[in-house]
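pls ignore typos typing on phone
zinc ion + seq
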Amino acid sequence: MVQRLPALLRRRKKPAARPPQPPRALEISGLPIPLELRESARATRMTLRVDAGRGLVQVVVPVGVSETDARQFVGRHDGWLRARLAAMPPSLPFVDGAGVPYLGVEHVIRHDPALRGPTRIADGALLVGGQPEHVARRVRDFLTAEAKRELATRARLKAATIGARVAAVTIRDTKSRWGSCSSTGRLSFSWRLILAPEPVLDYVVGHEVAHLREMNHSPRFWALCASLTDGTGVDWPRAWLKANGTRLLRYG
Ligand SMILES: [Zn+2]
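k done
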């Protein structure tokens, strides 16, 4: 039997000042995680939730909460966000037959136990030998080595054009940033950049090399960064990372 509440007892919604706005992307510098800001007429406080299916984090706010307040709220939960992201299982594992982008070009992992020689790229495939249980590690080791070669070579070449010196290039699996530059000239990059299209990898190198001269994000920095980035400029690679960064974190 369906019971209906007497009309008087039905919760009367307080009319909102204006209807909720459609969800929109919220940019937080230093976080490669797409964040979506969603206004909800029913929300009474701000909440953060991970949408694993869409590979993003949603911040839900009551109607009328300012973007500044939402940003501060997300900032206060920075540690939580990073921990949640790190705990998300890689949903695109390196197994035989799986696809993996190499410099943005899709390749298929082909495992053949009889394969001789090192893991390598050939004819649109990533060829791996050895035991099946070692395939994921071998693919990752290969991509990390390729990333190191690409990133270090480009970093030294770009640095030379502005008379700067790269002290060291380190490859890491950072969840929070694609690259960094220390005051002593040590550059660090995520191995996952080798998965991104070439102009994206190139831009991140240009960005960190530009920091060897300008330890800030001033207009002078961005002009130098653009001069160190080939072809596409900085806008397209930045937009690409914002839109696709999270996906890169799910490989492996
Ligand atoms: Zn920077």
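Residues 134-248 form a domain with the Zincin-like fold (CATH 3.30.2010.10). The first helix runs from residue 67 to 76. more later
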